[in-house]
Design a protein that fits this description.
Structural class: mainly alpha
Strand content: under 5%
Helix content: over 70%
Bound molecules: fe (ii) ion
Number of domains: 2
Largest sheet: none
């Protein structure tokens, strides 16, 4: 049973991270559908805005509550997020609420903050609304994936990526469900590690597949990272050893450095690819989030 303080803080941190992730998934769907898909584009946009509203609320309550660790992890925003949003929004013509990002840069931690029962109720309600909205998002993502697999729509996101973003949404759903019972999701060490190691490996594959064919060195690095995570998944299933945490940590630091360099390179127009800067920053934040989880697991 989580204490009131843990319930509030963990809820805020989980929502800060995942509500942004969700609204960006919807932005990627919105901007990768073809103009003929007016209804689906409109639906992606509405769902994106719903998550922006939820995120703006979370940011409002997060000040002081968020932990120093979460704040310093660069999983909420990175130093690149605002610029990546501005450039990606300009290049696609699709809207992103950068006021939220600016407010996130101003967030501070306060070890002496007070966790009232009023705040507990507010956060409980926010979690419930996020949960309900998330269910709609999952249904939408699965619909888009099914249409893509039936070749009824043309979308410039790989089916694997559509499946990947559904999996991330379902993982978030499980956390919200557990939080509403004042618990954390029950998962074995390998289930947790393999979820994220699969995610990291797929990021390597997506980056590899979206780089220009002439970017040979970067493509090779992305491919090697993908392979490294694939092996970690197999190893955890076979051996289930604690040292997988350390190995995962090292691999994730490596992919984090790679993604950070890629984000900088894309923002400065130094890499040939079909990767929007915001997607690079998005996967960088996911690596930063996983790194914070790994460091907690190590303790
Ligand atoms: Fe994602
Ligand atoms: Fe991802």
């Amino acid at each position: 049973m989580l204490s009131r303080q843990d319930f509030i803080r963990i809820s805020i941190e989980v929502n800060l991270f995942f509500q942004r992730i969700m609204k960006e998934h919807l932005f990627f769907i919105e901007t990768n559908l073809k103009p003929v898909e007016t209804a689906n584009i409109a639906e992606a946009k509405v769902l994106k805005q719903s998550f922006e509203h939820l995120l703006a609320e979370t940011v409002h309550y997060a000040n002081g509550i968020i932990s120093e660790d979460a704040l310093n992890s660069n999983e909420i925003v990175t130093p690149y997020t605002l610029r990546a949003e501005e450039i990606t929004s300009m290049l696609t013509g699709a809207n992103l609420n950068t006021q939220i990002t600016k407010a996130e840069y101003e967030l501070t931690a306060d070890p002496n903050c007070y966790f009232s029962d009023w705040l507990e109720n507010v956060i409980d309600d926010l979690n419930r609304r996020s949960y309900n909205m998330l269910k709609e998002v999952i249904t939408f993502k699965e619909k888009i994936l099914a249409l893509a697999l039936e070749c009824k729509i043309f979308i410039t996101l790989y089916p694997e990526m559509l499946e990947h973003i559904s999996r991330e949404a379902k993982y978030y759903l499980e956390i919200l469900k557990a939080l509403q019972d004042r618990k954390l999701p029950k998962q074995t060490l390998c289930e947790e590690l393999n979820f994220w190691n699969n995610i990291m490996g797929e990021h390597g594959e997506f980056i590899d597949g979206m780089l220009d064919p002439t970017e040979k060195n970067l493509k090779e690095a992305a491919e090697n990272l993908a392979e490294k995570f694939e092996k970690l998944v197999e190893e955890c299933i076979k051996t289930g050893e604690k040292q997988i945490i350390q190995k995962s940590l090292e691999a994730t630091e490596e992919i984090r450095d790679f993604k950070r360099a890629a984000t900088e390179g894309l923002l400065n127009c130094k890499i040939k690819s079909i990767i929007p800067p915001l997607l690079a920053d998005h996967v960088l934040r996911e690596a930063n989030h996983y790194l914070r989880l790994l460091k907690m697991m190590k303790q």
